[in-house]
Amino acid sequence: MATKKTSSQIDQSAEAGLRIEVAGENALIIYFGDKTSPEVSARVQQAVTILQEELGDKLIDMVPSYASLLVIYNLMLVDHLEVKNRIRPLLASLGNAASAEGQLVTLPAYYSTESGPDLEGLAKRAELSVEEVIKLHSETEYRVYAIGFAPGFAYLGEVDTRIAAPRLSTPRQKVPRGAVAIADRQTAVYPAVSPGGWNLIGLCPTRMFDPEAEPTMPVQVGDRIKFNPIDRDEFLALGGEL
Amino acid sequence: MSTNQSSLASQSNQANSGFKVQQPGLLTLIQDAGRLGHHRIGLTTGGPLDSQAFKWANRLLGNELNATALEVSIGGLVLTAEVDTWIVLTGAEMPLKINGQEQDRWHAHPVKAGDQIEVGFSALGARGYLAVAGGFQVEHSFSSSATVTREGIGGLNGEKLQQGDYLKCAAVKPAQTFRLPEAYRPDYSDQITLRVITGYQQHAFSDYQKRVFFSSEYKVTDRADRMGYRLEGPEVKPSIDGILSEGICHGAIQIPADGQPIVLLNDRQTIGGYPKIGSMISLDTARMAQLLPGSRVSFEEITIDDAHNLHCLAHAHFERIQPEAIS
Questions:
Q1: Partner-chain contact A63 B246, CB within 8 Å
Q2: CATH number of A7-96
Q3: B242 in reach of chain A (CB within 8 A)
């Protein structure tokens, strides 16, 4: 990491869509591209690890997302120029590194009209049977692109275009904890009861956020996720509530 | 955690040391300096909206600057002391009474078990900070006591103060307590200029749109809370509707489709997909958070270097001021 990068290497990474912008008085945001892709997401993940090492105590926090990384630093220890100068050469080397593979996490899902009030409507809209929707949703391997909106809310992508569905025109006041949901080409499991406008197709008995548990979340950004269809009895046996 | 807290409330006669909440006020929250380092699981920062007044409250009692205190919004808090200690109230102009007797703010006062402490409704400013010597003892959740009600995390059960809550603290005799001379106390006037660093999607705002933003007056709407302050004024339109969701820093100013800016504060969501023109510096989010709906603000563009300088200057200023010792 300490090796000096030539300016041509830095330019190459700039051509690859890398951009650093000021975000706030103690924050920079690094853009790795303009689109969602597993490759871009993998680079965001690599950057998280590398910058953590490089900045250490000077770092307050980071927010990785689809194609960007927000870097929040301690203004009493470092300034924006130093942060930029330190991270630029490291970012330039990212493109050559092997793509990081997150852990594979399987989440059980009880797909049904009982547990997923929008399942039938979504199937009808897609001109598919309910069984086909379940198959398409559970056969795809997703990637955790971002965590936010609420504690433990993991944005997973991308769902098969055939079952992509726009948000509800009127969001629900109360989406149950564990709801498996689709919005456009994203899918997620609601970590807690909250308002929400995503299409609900099932329920997952795994807690996505538990302040008492270690780790607090079963997944992190960069992980790969698969849903495993289970029936009503299995769902209840795993602690699910209807 | 929750059982622990409720048992505290019910055992207030058992060798307890602290304050009983008689009236919680409109919105009183347990806060320390904030919850840092947990954005990656979606946790926001919380913490005091006016970090300057919060720091002063702790400093006037000789506390650690991060000690747990109360953020009182608008006012209406009544506590009964069940401990001999010292308190101080800083921030908004909320009348402080101890046993019915009005007392100076920005000034440490001794209280005894049985004393009634009242924080009245604010004449000017929106957030008051009530601190106690040694800080309130509140169990940490993700390395902080800061209450974020939207997440249900921090404070007592993740909620705002309720009648009957018990605020634990030790009987502390501070080595020295202080009052801040009037000359150093902030003025919470309601027509202010707020400094903004352009950044994020600033390129999506034309020079004309930026000029509108930086030369117009905006009004604080009644949708102004700990998540963000929604402002109302001339529309500002970016050339893009939305962006891939990305990390939102404190003070970020997002402009949704209606062209009306929202300044995102301590309880903001950690990621979002609206275009942002830049971010307000923390010295000024602190001043803005003292404004009530209807107040008028305008923006001034500054560079990131100016912002760093202002931050360091404010820090040096805070260190340099010597509050008066109370004998």
A1: yes
A2: 3.30.1360.40
A3: no
